[in-house]
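Weekly modeling sync, notes
Attendees: S.R. (lead), two postdocs, one rotation student

Agenda item 3: backlog of single-chain predictions. S.R. asked that every request posted to the team notebook include the full sequence so nobody has to chase files. The rotation student volunteered to paste the first one in as an example of the format we agreed on. Action items at the bottom.

Example entry:
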Amino acid sequence: MHRRRRTALSVSVALLAAAPLLTACGSDAHPGAAAVVGGQRIEVSTLQAEVRDVRDAQDASPEAAQLIKNTGQLSQAKLNSMIFDRILQRAADDAGVRISRKEIQSTRQQAAAQSGGEKQFASMLLQQGALSSGQIDAAVRREVLLTKLARAIGANTTSPQGQQQVLATLTKTSEQLGIDVNPRYGSWDYKKVQLGEAKTPWITQVTRQAPEQEPTGA
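Predicted structure, as returned to the notebook:
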């Protein structure tokens, strides 16, 4: 079970560890929207607020210059996560998967304890995942939901076949929803369930420090 937990998280990272190559083509059919997912808008202002929270946290860090340098595609990476969260939620809804606030809190507490405390945990996630303290719960929720979705569809994420099964489910869901991205941020790759193809290695470290235990209350 421990191994399954870690591998499921790795699937999430693989899906999220990419930001787009910017494109010059296309037109903005939805002024003010960074993307439209299933007819629901993700406002540019909402995206900018996410980015600003991270930049403010980075500015307050002793390693500010290096952190900012390593996250040059932060807007794209944040939008990628915001789109992915909506796809994941729909896939979970379709599979009848639910998670509780207690599960999120328990998983976060386990991760913080294994990292040496909440302060150290938040610092690690800022450095390795470009997450402000206010964004941690959403990231933990994503990991828990993905793990439970994999379990619900019978995907053994310790195997390549199981990981592909999860990816196929999310691909199908994203195609059903329809993803319309403002060209300034790139284009959506339905097969990979991500924005563009430019790698952002600073995301890939996040779940290597994640808790191995299954969330309680599942």
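Discussion: group reviewed the output briefly. The domain at 2-209 is CATH 1.10.4030 (Triger factor/SurA peptide-binding fold).
Action items: rotation student to repeat for the remaining queue; S.R. to check formatting next week.
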